[in-house]
Amino acid sequence: VTATRENKMAIKQSLSAGMVVVAMASPAAAADIVDTASSNGSFTTLVAAVKAAGLDDTLKGPGPFTVFAPTDEAFKKLPAGTVENLLKPENKAQLTKILTYHVVPGKVMAADIKGKKTNAKTVEGSNLAIDATGSAVKVDTASVSAADVTASNGVIHVIDTVVMPKT
Fold it and tell me: How high is the pLDDT of residue 135?
């Protein structure tokens, strides 16, 4: 069977149209934790700190991770000059310790802890106190303002305070 020039063009157009439909029907790939936080606009300080500590590649990795992410407003609650001081290269170890205290290995969704009071071992090595027994979920001294922000390699829970590891 020989296709005419018109038939070949119609087949190409049909295939092209079909591919567009398929591409539009397939779900967009979810962004990783760093890209999700970056695109939000409320985590510029956190993202800058993650990059300064050299943790961006890790948090772009396969995970899964649960990140308790302080907003820019949360960082503003710290004493004046704290963030600028932590971002200095000579304070990278301290910055890393603080940031990894906000990360728990695995993917912990709000439903997993609802109604519970527990501790979660952080990447930093200490336990983070989590209290989900009341109407507001507390993570150490912080309150969760938004939960279950999914990323391709884990989940982000937005918190209103930077939590500090016990020395």
Answer: 87
